[in-house]
Amino acid sequence: MDKEVIIEKINNFLIDEFEVEVDDIAPEANLTETLELDSLDFVDLVVAIEANFGVKLVGEDFIDVVTLQNFYDLIEKKIS
């Protein structure tokens, strides 16, 4: 799966499930501040990633994840 497909799926999920505004979605967007995702949202996000990409995420995976770009990179790395 190429990076553009990963980004598109993640963005669509954020828009559809978390009601994130399209204008707020940018690689440098902070997940908690800009996109306003809280700890419960992260749990839902992990479930969605597992369902959509078939990869398992754990809390330690998110240690260095601050921006949406960090999240894209994490998912790409897990799929590879």
Summarize the structure.
This protein is mainly alpha-helical and 80 residues long.
Q: Which terms summarize this structure?
A:
single chain; 80 residues; mainly alpha; Non-ribosomal Peptide Synthetase Peptidyl Carrier Protein, Chain A; 54% helix; 0% strand
Report the radius of gyration as a whole number of Å: 11 Å
- The CATH homologous superfamily name equals ACP-like
Average pLDDT for all residues: 94
Q: Determine the N-to-C terminus distance.
A: 9 Å
> How many structural domains are formed by the residues?
1
Query: What would the principal axes of the Cα set say about the shape?
Result: globular
In the CATH hierarchy, what is the architecture at level 2?
Answer: Orthogonal Bundle
Write a structural description:
The chain is mainly alpha-helical. The protein has one domain: ACP-like (Non-ribosomal Peptide Synthetase Peptidyl Carrier Protein, Chain A), CATH 1.10.1200.10. Helix content is 54%, strand content 0%. It is built from three helices and no strands.
